[in-house]
Amino acid sequence: MKGLAALAFVLTASPAAAHGGAGAVWSAGGVWTYDPRVVVPLYVSAILYLIGTLRLWRRAGHGRGVRHWQAACFWLGWMFLALALVSPLHWLGERLFTAHMIEHEIIMALAAPLLAVSRPIGAFLWAVPSGWRRALGDAAQVPAVAALWRGVSDPLAATTLHGVALWAWHMPALYDRVLVSAGAHWLQHMSFLATALLFWWSLVYGRARRRGYGAAVFYLFVTALHTGVLGILLTVSRHLWYPRQAAFAAEWGLTPLEDQQLAGLVMWVPAGLVYAGAALALAGLWISRSGPAPIQGGARAVG
């Protein structure tokens, strides 16, 4: 109960409740992220998607090529990504492990699936000159490139890559590097996003879909299991995994160990619910598509 109360405090605290550096979360502009490595890709992706979608809709008709629900998923996923990487949550995540974990889960469990199901590549291609589109299409057909994509987009490979990235970056040696190096921090977030996009795409549109979504349900279960194990280990541990991130916990009324336990709880429960919900949704599709095919043209009456 104490842990849940502390988590609620972290998420809802006001400037009056927080003190010292924590109160700067609500300041006007100093805690927003302006790193070009983060801001430029976000703005470029938004501009390309907007231009490509408008061009495609002018050519094919409104809602064709890019469906309305896909556009909604892209923009919602983009906003989640901006929330995680640009808003004061990112600044706070450098000081509070719980906030850092919330940032990671927004990237991997909210932004990534929304962006993956939106299939934005088509809109991006329509934003560039036609000659570029042909060149990129030809490059994708190069045997080595096509073979590499088939390999990494296999659901087993994508799940493995995502799991390796998650566990590797939570090893103390690498995580401590993230806390002292902006470049390592950027690389961590890029690997989380890239492997999460690959993971979700492989389940929704890759071979797992062609296999009837049964494989997707299995790989979601595996991912929920191993991420839950990592969250449980962080939650029940009696020693600090990352002492470098312990300096600011007291500003939020937490001990460093409580901060770590709350971070583990975030990975264990909310993220696990996302994977479980996705698995149930895909299981429903799997079951509905595995039933008997409808009789074409209706049954003839027997006289």
Walk me through what this model shows.
By secondary structure, the chain is an all-alpha fold. The protein has one domain. It contains 15 helices and no strands. The radius of gyration is 22 Å and the shape is globular. The N terminus and C terminus are likely disordered.
How would you summarize what this structure contains?
The chain has 303 residues and is an all-alpha fold. It has 15 helices and no strands. It has one domain (32-129, 150-289).
Helix-strand layout with pairing:
Blueprint: H1 2-12, H2 36-60, H3 68-85, H4 88-93, H5 97-118, H6 121-126, H7 130-140, H8 143-152, H9 155-169, H10 172-180, H11 182-204, H12 207-210, H13 214-236, H14 256-268, H15 270-289
Helix pairs in contact: 2-3, 3-5, 5-11, 5-14, 9-11, 9-13, 10-11, 13-14, 13-15
What is the overall silhouette?
Answer: globular
What is the averaged pLDDT score?
Answer: 85
Q: How many alpha or pi helices? A: 15
Number of domains: 1
Through-space gap between termini: 71 Å
**Class by helix and strand content?**
mainly alpha
Whole-number radius of gyration?
22 Å
Largest sheet: none
Helix content: over 70%
Low-pLDDT runs of 5+ residues are 1-7, 13-22, 298-303
Beta percentage is under 5%
Number of E-type strands: 0
Helix and strand pattern:
HHHHHHHHHHHHHHH
Spell out the key features of this protein.
single chain, 303 residues, mainly alpha, 15 helices, 0% strand, globular, disordered N terminus
